[in-house]
């Protein structure tokens, strides 16, 4: 949400909105592009709540109500969430059960493709009822079908780490190309359900590819950063005993640090949890200097 507010403050979100509206002004299809395709990519790259937070913020800027956007993103995240960030849930399931994680990923990849298409039709029904399903089913079939096929193939022949990333990119490409040839007869917008032309001026403002890339850069940078942080070898550098552990700043959280303990038989002896969090420094800076930070970013 912080990155979203920076984009709005600097005027870059108008370009982001325009780049999406140039594909389609229909908010049902915007949900497929942003909430499903881009959200699935973030789930595979980052996971741990980041996909819902980032995609919901983007949808809010496109005219969705905040709580409604978050709810829709949570529902549509059902399709990719089983594989999580870099296949971590599948890998952990293999470690806990003793079953080969590749075999678990294969079985998941044989079940989820059917759920993917069902969930997308469900989202259309939530947003616009049966009429929404009738008007958008070609786009749903393209987005869900391409995602399902790529998910099945990648999980059964590559491994559990990349199905979400591969499937989301394939789905995004197929859906974008399809929408260049096809659009629903009625444009659906919240608050103006009968509109046929909405915000079309924003979709044809003539932004260059460089301007669009610059506007998306904060979200791309956030995605790349969280992806890097999710890679086990990189995380190991900052873990206890890692090469860069001495650079980690840990601040004991008052009324939490060492006040909760793990007890036998989970552990051999009572061990207190360390309540340390370096995010307090970030929160402190963001709360004190938001305007200054925005102005500095706007210069670039």
Automatic annotation (TrEMBL):
Its main location: membrane. Keywords: Cell inner membrane, Cell membrane, Membrane, Transmembrane, Transmembrane helix, Transport. InterPro entries: Lactate_perm. It is found in: Cell inner membrane; Cell membrane. Coiled coil: none annotated. One of its GO terms (molecular function) is lactate transmembrane transporter activity. The keyword Phosphoprotein does not apply. The keyword Cell inner membrane applies. Uptake of L-lactate across the membrane. Can also transport D-lactate and glycolate. PANTHER family: GLYCOLATE PERMEASE GLCA-RELATED, L-LACTATE PERMEASE. This is L-lactate permease.
């Amino acid at each position: 949400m912080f990155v979203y507010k920076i984009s709005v403050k600097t005027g870059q979100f108008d370009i982001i909105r325009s780049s999406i509206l140039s594909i389609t002004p229909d908010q049902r299809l915007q949900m497929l592009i942003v909430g499903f395709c881009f959200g699935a990519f973030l789930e595979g790259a980052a996971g741990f709540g980041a996909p819902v937070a980032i995609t919901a913020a983007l949808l809010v800027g496109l005219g969705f109500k905040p709580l409604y956007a978050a709810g829709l993103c949570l529902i549509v995240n059902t399709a990719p969430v089983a594989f999580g960030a870099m296949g971590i849930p599948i890998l952990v399931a293999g470690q806990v059960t003793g079953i080969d994680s590749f075999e678990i990923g294969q079985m998941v990849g044989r079940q989820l493709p059917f759920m993917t298409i069902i969930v997308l039709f469900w989202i259309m029904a939530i947003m616009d009822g049966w009429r929404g399903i009738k008007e958008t089913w070609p786009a749903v079939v393209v987005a869900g079908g391409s995602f399902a096929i790529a998910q099945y193939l990648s999980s059964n022949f590559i491994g559990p780490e990349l199905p979400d990333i591969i499937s989301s990119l394939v789905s995004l490409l197929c859906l974008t190309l399809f929408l260049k040839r096809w659009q629903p007869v009625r444009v659906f917008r919240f608050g103006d359900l009968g509109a046929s032309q909405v915000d079309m001026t924003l979709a044809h403002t003539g932004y260059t590819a460089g301007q669009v890339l610059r506007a998306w850069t904060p979200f791309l940078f956030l995605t790349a950063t969280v992806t890097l942080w999710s890679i086990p070898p990189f995380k190991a550098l900052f873990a206890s005993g890692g090469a860069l552990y001495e650079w980690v700043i840990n601040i004991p959280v008052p009324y939490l640090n060492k006040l909760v303990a793990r007890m036998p038989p989970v552990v051999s002896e009572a061990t207190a949890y360390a309540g340390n969090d370096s995010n307090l420094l970030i929160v402190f800076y963001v709360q004190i200097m938001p305007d200054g930070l925005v102005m500095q970013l706007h210069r670039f």
